Amino acid sequence: MKKRWISLFVENDIGVLARISGLFSGKSYNLNSLTVGTTEDTTISRMTISLTSDDKTFEQIKKQLNRSVEVIKVVDFMDTAIHMKELMFVKIHGCSEHDMMKLSYMKEIFQAKMIDYAPSMALLESVQTEAGNNDLLKLLESDFSGRIEVVRGGSVAIEAISFSER
Predict the structure, then answer these.
(1) What is the three-class DSSP state of 87?
(2) Which of 137, 19, 122, 27 is nearest to 88 (CA)?
(3) Contacts of 29 (CB under 8 A, 6+ apart)
(4) What is the pLDDT of the chain when averaged over all its residues?
(5) Domains of the chain with bracketed CATH
(6) Helix/strand/coil for 5
(7) Are the beta carbons of 93 and 121 closer than 8 angstroms?
(8) Which pTM does this prediction carry?
């Protein structure tokens, strides 16, 4: 079982997202994340899907997606250099002055932003790889256990121009 990413170019029509996600649930495939948005062509949307599967199942998924009428193109990111980021918001409750100083250091180290705050609360925004956000979250959970609220968006990805990224 490996973590895998694919990108789909699909028709930007009502119900397409439901049909694509229904294809996964109908076959009992579990998605780790799914993001979708319009492209430079407003008639086409791009989906970035993350899932965990074995090689055989992943090939079946790609074949089923290619057969779907609404799917224009399937891009397998497994052997492609890509740029990928995930958006994460973390709200930290019950902060002391010392906690705010610790958060200030953490946000610098992890290149996060403090986008909102109150005397006893802070809201961080992190746009990192999934692994980078996991690392930040692990540190925040260890220092602020029981006082955090997390919202994560799925990853978005695009093929790299050079071969040095992954």
Answers:
(1) strand
(2) 137
(3) 51, 53, 57, 61
(4) 91
(5) 2-80 (3.30.70.260), 83-159 (3.30.70.1150)
(6) strand
(7) yes
(8) 0.84
Highest-confidence range of 19-33, 56-70, 131-145, by mean pLDDT? Answer: 131-145
Distance CA 61, CA 7 (A): 12
How confident is the model over 37-96, as pLDDT tens digits? 999 999 999 999 988 888 888 888 899 899 988 999 999 988 888 899 999 999 999 999
- Residue 73, classed as helix, strand or coil, is strand
The residue ranking higher by pLDDT, 28 or 5, is 5
CA distance 6 to 58: 10
- Kindly tell me the burial class for residue 49, based on how many C-beta atoms sit within 10 Å of its own C-beta (0-12, 13-18, 19 or more): buried
- Return the H-helix or E-strand segment holding 135: helix 130-143
